[in-house]
Amino acid sequence: MPEPIAPPHVYVDADACPVKPEVFRVAERHSLHVTLVAAAWMRVPPDPRIHLEVVAHGFDAADDWIATRVAAGDIVVTADIPLASRCLAQGAAVIGTSGRAFTADNIGDALATRELLAGLRGAGEATPGPPAFSAKDRSRFLQALELAVQAARR
Question: Which of 10, 21, 44, 63 has the smallest C-beta neighbourhood within 10 Å, fewest atoms?
Answer without folding.
Answer: 21
